[in-house]
Structure prediction request, 246 residues.
Amino acid sequence: MDVRQPQAWGPRTIDDIELILIVRGPFEYVDPAGRIELASGQLLLIPPEVRHTFSRPTGEGRWTFSCLHCELLPDARWARGDYRLDVPPRRVTDVNQDVVLRDLFRHVAREFAGRGQPISPIAEALARAIWVRLSDHWTGRRGPVLSPRMQAMTDFLRRRMADPVSRRDLAERFDLTPQHVNHLFRTELDTTPTAWLNHQRCLQARQLMKVDGLNCRQAARAVGFADPYYFSKVYKRIMGTPPSRG
Prediction:
């Protein structure tokens, strides 16, 4: 769903489990336990019968999310205690690099006719696949399934996050052509080396500002941006909000 202006769903309660994938953020979730800020690539689980508000905060731009309502057993309700989960679910799961899970959400959106309408067997199978994949995230078994070479490249980029590293640098370090480096990132992570590195830098900068108390200029420098104004532009594009707002 595209949201082009501030909008809120709630306060409300729902009678089933809702999964919301933030395709492009930011969004906010508020319930009696507190407030959660949600960025692109995060998945929110809303349990049934919890009064909450889900909203797109103020600001310009087109933010997008995909949602799925589900129960895990036919004719059963989690809220009634009809079943219990072996794997405790997380309220927020980072699925930025799980290309398969994001694709599953896209496919189920095409198959799902709408709430209150009959659900196709394909949509049911896709929803089960989403839940199984999330369970692997929650148990630590699931990360992006990378080839050893791609794992080595992303590890190298994380170690050199504060340094200027180009596609050519990666090609020379791993004895590849720049074009092959790009192909590997597109195939395994559905992105480019620069976009992947900038996303990791912005996540790290957000941590440095929110937890360590660095200001925008300090965080930008710490993650490899010499120009804080360019950093602010990149951060807003990736995270959906200016760095001054977290």
Notes: The chain has a mean pLDDT of 85. Residues 37 and 234 are 19 Å apart (CA to CA). The domain at 2-139 is CATH 2.60.120.280 (Jelly Rolls).
